[in-house]
TrEMBL record:
Pfam families: Dimer_Tnp_hAT. This is HAT C-terminal dimerisation domain-containing protein. Signal peptide: none annotated. GO terms for molecular function: protein dimerization activity. It comes from Aphis glycines.
């Protein structure tokens, strides 16, 4: 398998495998995490240490009320930054709600790490590695899907699309789950200026 080393490395970051990391005097197999560490440009020993520490405290971290973590920091941000901060908090509440797999998937674990690194530098490398893992395509499915979508967007009758427009259309199609609902988007766009609001309402 082409990505076997990478998949084995990524498996250590799955919270379902954290029980292995909690074993006293646990030692990573030789060469473990070296590939993912090189991709993230972090030190292997540092990431091993941070991952073990995070895994050992994961249950306590996962039970933290994220709203409390942000409560003491509101005064340190400007109004604009505060809005972004609240948005992140809302995202955490959404993803970590009961209807999601809040304690058993890499995506939700990443949000816990994100919460930690906003308050302590102890897990900066771990945060970087999780970002790399979540951006990887471990199979060719997503690549093949993008080429299939490309055929439907750039047709013979629509062959003069600029690269910027083509990229935008591809992104909207491939990442449709991430796209903000149109009514929210219009409201946010209208809030940028009175002229924009007038144009949207008119």
């Amino acid at each position: 398998m082409i990505n076997e080393d990478l998949i084995q490395d990524a498996a250590f970051f799955d919270p379902r495998t954290f029980s292995k990391l909690k074993i006293p005097k646990f030692m990573f197999p030789e060469g473990s995490l070296s590939k993912i560490a090189s991709m993230a440009k972090v030190d292997v020993l540092d990431i091993q240490r941070q991952l073990i520490e995070f895994a050992q405290n994961y249950e306590a971290i996962a039970n933290i009320d994220t709203s409390i973590l942000y409560q003491d920091y509101n005064d340190e941000f400007s109004e604009k930054e505060n809005e972004n901060h609240i948005d992140i908090e809302d995202d955490l509440k959404c993803v970590l709600s009961e209807k999601h797999c809040s304690k058993s998937c890499i995506s939700c674990t990443f949000l816990y790490v994100y919460t930690l690194v906003t308050h302590t530098p102890n897990f900066n490398d771990l945060y970087t590695v999780y970002k790399v893992i979540l951006s990887l395509a471990f199979t060719q499915v997503s690549c093949e899907r993008s080429f299939s979508i490309l055929k439907t967007i750039k047709t013979r009758l629509r062959s003069t699309l600029s690269n910027n427009k083509l990229e935008a259309f591809m992104f909207m199609n491939l990442e449709r789950g991430m796209i903000v609902p149109h009514d929210i988007f219009i409201d946010r766009l209208g809030d940028t200026s009175t002229e924009m609001k007038r144009m949207l309402i008119g």
